[in-house]
Amino acid sequence: MCGIAGAYGGAHRISGHQDLIAGMLRQIEHRGPDEAGCYLDDRLVMGTVRLSIIDLTHGSQPVGSEDGRWWLCYNGELYNYRELRAELIRLGMRFRTDSDTEVVLQAWLAWGRDCLRRFNGAFAFSLYDSLTGELTLVRDRFGKRPLFVARHEGKWLFASEMKAFLAVPGFRFSFDSEQLASIFATWTPLPDQSGYRDIEQIPMGEFLCLRGDEVERGRWATLDLEPGLPPDSEEEAIELVRAELTAAVDVRLRSDVEVGVYVSGGLDSSIIAHLAAGRQQHPLRTFSIEFDDAQFDESAEQAAVTADLGTHHQSVYVRDDDVVQAFPAAVRHAEVPAFRTAFVPMYLLAEKVREAGIKVVMSGEGADEAFLGYGIFKDALLLDSWHDLDEQARLERIGRIYPYLPHFSGENAPRRMLGLYQQFTEEHLTGLFSHQMRFQNGRFAARLLRGATDPFAAAQAMVASEPDYAALDTVRKAQWLEFRTLLSGYLLSTQGDRMALAHGVENRCPFLDPAVVKLAASLNHRFGDPFDEKYLLKRAFAGVLPKKVIDKGKFPYRATDGAAFVRAWPEFRDVLTDQTTLDAIGVLDPRFTRALVDRVFTSPAERIGTKENQAFTLLASLHWLHHWFVRGQAFDASPLRAGLHVVDRRTSALPAGHGQE
Q1: Per-residue pLDDT averaged across 96-107, rounded?
Q2: Which of 162-171, 198-207, 601-610 is predicted least confidently?
Q3: Whether pLDDT at 541 is above 80
Q4: Distance between CA atoms of residues 380 and 487, nearest Å
Q5: What's the whole-number average pLDDT of the chain?
Q6: pLDDT of residue 441
Q7: Which of 67, 164, 367, 620 could form a disulfide with 268 if both were Cys (CB 3.0 to 4.6 A apart)?
Q8: What average pLDDT score do residues 210-221 get?
Q9: 99 near 125, Cβ under 8 Å?
Q10: C-alpha distances in angstroms, 132 versus 65, 198, 216, 614?
Q11: Residue 353 — φ and ψ, nearest 5°?
Q12: Within 10 Å of residue 641's Cβ, how many Cβ atoms?
């Protein structure tokens, strides 16, 4: 795993090539602390910081074609690289390394852009044709690996993390209030959003091609949720689930370094740990988080799983103080506002993993989205059929949606929630029917921003522009939204990629194997009770996982939010409401901000609801983003620790008699 960065001048010459790329790569060296290399010519400079995982000796970057025309900077892993390599060799392609990076390059040379559909991996890369001057930027189908682009003084800038832009002379960050309103309301950046002016993400499954001043954008992968033919029986379905997940784990164990597993104590990571442990000769290394607050702690289930599998297990113990102290550094790596603090313990866990000498871990992300494990899918089922149900049926289903939430538990809780659900049985936000109830919390958070426009306009425009979205049923619309928003925008990025690679740890997600996602689409709601989430997954692994894990039910990973700051850093109240700081941030409504902060710091923790906690965490993260990015304090002026290997193809650097390749 790596980080990439660069600048493309189009018709303009790039100046200060080597210093520019060295500075950009230094800002993201945590992603790849093992090596650094760059390519530069009169139009382009691009580079990579490498985390060595495949072909440790010969996998250095950038990788060039044999004739010197094509150059690749690659961030990611191609899990099916061995199969593709064998196929390419049969076509006559010659390889100089055993790395998956060279497979990406050779696949492009053999099949062009069509090669992307063959890739099973998590990646973002820049590919340059030095003959035509064409630069192509590509991101993987699920948005596992980040890729940001920005325009600055006639140049295109690109990088795995936005902090690389801090090294570009004259570049300045400023908040985009419309994007922030959307992020606050929908809990996450949408696929093209960054939260800042003039910076965008390349969305999942898309590419950006630059030819001088000509720009081409396109999508190479769509999110296919259309169900195929289901198997004839439940037993056959269970066997298919086992087989596809086993294959997905197998290819993600491909590594020249040891692979560990995050064990949360829930079903998904326990399945991954079970499959990984059974396919290795040595004891599996597993890692987890323990909380001192019992309402978040799953250490009993973690202990049951790791003891049953005989893993070499380590955990990090997290208290309020730990969350508060690590919050600023974690936000620096997150780069975007966060609506919960759960990413901070993941930052601390990755630090523990790297200290243990592990560079690669597998985890259970994607299982809930693929196999409909979230309560929001049960919400969608209930609301879609609301008018066909009598009151007793409605009450029974409400009681089964969020049993882990206090206001949903208890004998009379479903009746108390009846009126809430009734409010959302009609579509008020066009195209967002399944998520309307969730977005109410976001509407509250968006009030932190002064002069904000409709916070849901961007999300509504996104679904309106999707050709096949309108034809999906209500549950699959909810699933599509989860894949395109919370999964890629928060779980795989803020909580996943950024926290792990802050410490040079790569995370791999078997549940996001394309074959697994496609299989799940064909099986969901075909067997079992749709209100018994992930029924087939539980059936498939009931005989091999501890009963307490199988029977536990959904327990979302969370951490303490506002209460942690109240208990561990009461002075933060004054920091957040300081008038000078509010004026400098510029996008906040001072009156609403002060009212929210006062409520969080003066009310008992049990009186602070979900929407207040989310709004407070968004506010706290925005405060630190202003410090790190708008004020530029995230910039690191020290030199690259790994040194920089340079491929210099500038006209002035070529020997006499040689022109630009």
Answers
A1: 97
A2: 601-610
A3: yes
A4: 18
A5: 94
A6: 86
A7: 367
A8: 95
A9: no
A10: 15, 27, 15, 49
A11: -60, -45
A12: 10
